[in-house]
Amino acid sequence: MRESSEPLADNWALRFRKLLKSAAGVHVLSKTRSSREPIQIRFTNLLLLGHARLKAAELDTNVEGLALWEGGSGSDARKAPGAVGEWRVHGQDVQIIQANGAALSTRRISAPESAPEKAKQKNSYTPVLRAMLFADAVGFSQLTEAQLPVFFSDFQAAIARLIRKSKQSPEVADTWGDGLYLVFRTVEDAGRFSLRLRDRIHNVDWAATGLPKSLSLRIGLHAGPVYRCKDPITGELTFVGTNVTRAARLEPITPPGEVYTSADFAALASAENAKGFSCEHKGMIPAAKGFGDFPTYVLKPRAPA
Model's pTM, two decimal places? Predict the structure, then answer.
């Protein structure tokens, strides 16, 4: 608000505060002050579109994009950056209203080629938008000493083979004991892979391998801005940031055999027209370790049209 409203004239900051007080709900993207990175602005614009589409689907209606334009002629408006440009890239028509009240109908434009991300530099912390998967093997703590080698040679090896063969290959794959952490370039890749992973584990008779029959995975998905960097200890590529922590808090509350997503993940999937899965609202669920209550979605496969 300080960066967007206060610099403007005509009491826009006061208008913003009044709207905030009367809002039916407030979705906080971060409890820390914005870094003013372009990725944060892009993330916000995508979530505006995604949440609007999720609400429209809930009400069985359509989304109408609307923007107030104060800069120049109609031709200038059609090249508007920021939210308008981002929405158009993802197939959303936007009606531009100029400051003088003259409405301009605009057409949908095709998506431009994605701008390449900055080249990775030594010790650089590059802000990027990524989807994160955390998974945990339910029942691991009850394994006997004799079952542990079988767990790694069969259960974990099955996951490793799926990662190597998958078209939705993660940029980072890490594990500790029964925990799994994967980072994907897009929510599309993360959503598709998580369903394949869930089914791969569910469709195996683990009792035949000597492991508990009830052995399964719970999977949590979240997406948001993170920093891409080199781990100073391992020297390997990694991603860090508060959104990684938030993703980790979602997995422990997921029921065995299910895939839960954050509202941000669901909104990005809707904004980016992700295929192959849908996100169904589950309700407000407390995150692990007292992290707060958040709107949560369950990931479901979507039948081909």
Answer: 0.82
